[in-house]
Amino acid sequence: MTKPPVPHRLRVLSYNVHRWGDDREALARVVKACAPDVMLVQEAPTWWGTRRKRREMAATFGLRYLAGQARNAILVADGIEVAESLHWRIWRPFVRRRLRLIATQLPGGAVGGRVMLGSAQLALVVCHLGLHILGRQHELEQVLRGCRSFGTPYLLVGDLNETPEGPVWKRLADEGLIDLGADAGPTFSSSNPHRRIDGALLSPGISGRLLPIPAELSADLPKASDHLPLLIELHL
Length: 236
Hints:
Blueprint: E1 9-16, H1 24-34, E2 38-42, H2 50-61, E3 64-69, E4 72-76, E5 83-90, E6 95-98, E7 101-104, E8 108-117, E9 120-128, H3 133-149, E10 154-159, H4 167-174, E11 178-179, E12 198-202, E13 207-211, H5 221-224, E14 230-235
Parallel strand pairs: 1-2, 9-10
Antiparallel strand pairs: 1-14, 2-4, 3-4, 5-8, 6-7, 8-9, 10-12, 11-12, 13-14
C-alpha cells in the first residue's frame, strides 16, 4: 500500500467539547467546517463506554479516535499518521477551595503524539488543567516534562482554566513558548466570550498561526460547547 504524502501544512483543532453533552449536530458542523487534520480534544466523553463514545463522537466529525488520557483525546483525519502516542496521568489536588466552597476534582492527564510535517518531526500535546490555582502550576510542570520527553519541537494546547495574567501563562512564557492566541480574543464562554482560558503554544523550531473560525458558524458555536475552538495552522 502506498503511504499518503507527508503534509507541509497541518490544520490542528483544539476544542473543549463539554463532554459531548451539548448540541451534537451543531458541534459536528463546527468541526467539519474547520476541517482539521488532527483534533486535540478536552473534556472528551468518559465514564461508561469511554472508548465507544469517543469513537462515535469522532465518526460524527468524519475523524477517527486515536488515543486518550483522562478527559483528553486525539482524533485524526484519514491519511494523517500520529505515531508514538504517549499518555500520562498528572497529579492533581483532589479538592479545591473557592471562597467557602469545597469541591472535588476529577483526575488529570495529558496525551500527545508525533507527526511529520514535511521533513521535520514535531509533537502535538493536549492537556486540561484543574481549578485549583496552586495545583495548576504543579500540573503544568508535569505536562511540560511530557512535552520535552518527545525530544522534538511541539505544539501544546489545552484548557488552562486561567487567564493570561496568571502564573501558568507566565511559566509557559518562561519556557520559551510562543502564545499563538495573544491577539485572538476570549475563548470562554461561547455564548458570552469574556475570558481567554484556552491556549495554543508553540516551542521554537516550528511556525504556526491561528486561523479564523468560519463566520457561518456563529450560530452553531454557542450551541456546540461552552468553549470556543482554536484552529491552528502549522508549517515549516
